[in-house]
Amino acid sequence: MLRCLDIEADLVADSEEAIAAVARASQQGRPYRLVLMDVQMPGMDGLEATRQLRSSGQDTRALPIIALTANCLTEEVEACRKAGMQAHVAKPIRLSDLAEKLKTYIVLPAECGLASSQDSHSSAADNLDVRRTVFTASVSMAALEDKYLCRKQMLLEQVTEILAQDAAKADWERLLRELHRVAGTAANFGNADFGQLSRELGDLVRATPDPAHRQALLSQAYAQMRKAA
After folding, report:
1. Which residue range is the domain that position 148 belongs to?
2. Tens-digit pLDDT profile for residues 15-70
3. Which of 16, 145, 174, 175 sits 20 to 30 Å CA-CA off 161?
4. 184 within a domain of the structure (yes/no)
């Protein structure tokens, strides 16, 4: 998911490694801009790891910490905040939910379709940058496939969201952009059927001006899209 958002990330196995990685990055002059902290981990949990990071001098402005938790009860969320975390993302994690939390603290690339607006998050843009993965001509096929899979997941989530909301308020232009992008790349990753469905759905939506009728088309196509995905 982070690759899909063009964010460079380091993965660690437990809390001790997380604390060590943050300290090492700071010493090297390349501090992390944000930590995604799993609350439940073997050994030290994410709450205690966060407390130790805060007590070591990593304040909330320099290092935002977002909790990853399957338990979103009020007590759990409050415990995360008391430990020094700024926000939480519920498991199972959805790409759109993750991006919505991240853009509060870092600037996401505009191409992912989920970037924060310059006006609404100017302070974040002024004070925090993000070390992004650079996709060059020598990038591996596996990395490109990861990016495609993330984009496909983001498209399916967007369709689900539109089906659940007022059709007149849906972001149809964004949906059309994502359908077009997936249609143009799916066949490269052995997913030609999904690409063809995306292309046909894009053409139908574009030719149907009424939002309610567009939503009906999405509803009819959704099961096929899930199967082809």
Report:
1. 141-228
2. 899 999 999 989 998 888 899 999 887 789 999 999 999 999 999 988 999 998 87
3. 145
4. yes
